[in-house]
Amino acid sequence: MLSLANAKLNLGLFLTEKREDGYHNLETVFYPVKLYDVVELIDANETNCIIKGINIPGNAADNICLKAFVQLQKDFNLPNQQIVLLKNIPVGAGLGGGSADAAFLIKLVNEKFKLNLPVEKMQDYARNLGADCAFFIENKPVYAFAKGDEFEDVTLDLSTYSIVLVKPNVHVSTAEAYQNVKVKQPKVSLKELINLPLNEWKGKIENDFETSVFAKFPQIDEIKTKLYAAGATFALMSGSGSSVFAIFEKPVLLADLEKENQVFYNL
């Protein structure tokens, strides 16, 4: 049994304060996009994880999907499974690929073994694995706050636009990005800003990681500049980087950016 685990974009990201537990409170809007990993469960003699496709740094035994399965296996006495992960979502790109894989693994286990877990319970399991992991359980546009694991519905549909994603050959460490960021309270909440017309987002909806990440990786800033020059209505770095997305009124081809970067169209 397998499932397609999609990526997400951060339509804005405000880091509002440092928490006593070491995390940050934030505001963001998560938006699912059509870029997928494949997660598969196969009956096996022992539980393990095999990773194919894009290389993921570290040991497969430490993979977040395996961690997700093991906690469910303990609670529900599940039989051993081999987890096969076909990795296509770029790593270190601010797209939530690892969190998506784990969340869809939880949903896959729930379906395969007929656990009948409610959404809230699956979200609780996901929250144990990562701040944005719980988003992928329902996998719909939401305003996220607290650590990024509390949600409110938003009415947002970008399906009539052309969304393009540019991933440079740069890996931005989330931990490093957080070390250099400056927190501040926004003048207007992202919850309000996201309701503005798209052509008013520029200059109002921002990503607080951009200042520090652009200082270290100016090529990411250059990508954003080129996307606006190509006619984007709105462009922003997603998450802690390194990918930059752009929303266009009509489909485009960005041959110049394709020379040194991965470019994904029609997301």
TrEMBL record:
Transmembrane segments: none annotated. The keyword Transferase applies. It is an enzyme of class 2 (transferase). Residues 63-137 form the GHMP kinase N-terminal domain. Its EC number is 2.7.1.148. ATP binds at P90, V91, G92, A93, G94, L95, G96, G97, G98, S99, A100. Keywords: ATP-binding, Isoprene biosynthesis, Kinase, Nucleotide-binding, Transferase. GO terms for molecular function: 4-(cytidine 5'-diphospho)-2-C-methyl-D-erythritol kinase activity. HAMAP family: IspE. NCBIfam families: ispE. This is 4-diphosphocytidyl-2-C-methyl-D-erythritol kinase. It comes from Pedobacter boryungensis. The lineage of its organism: Bacteria, Pseudomonadati, Bacteroidota, Sphingobacteriia, Sphingobacteriales.
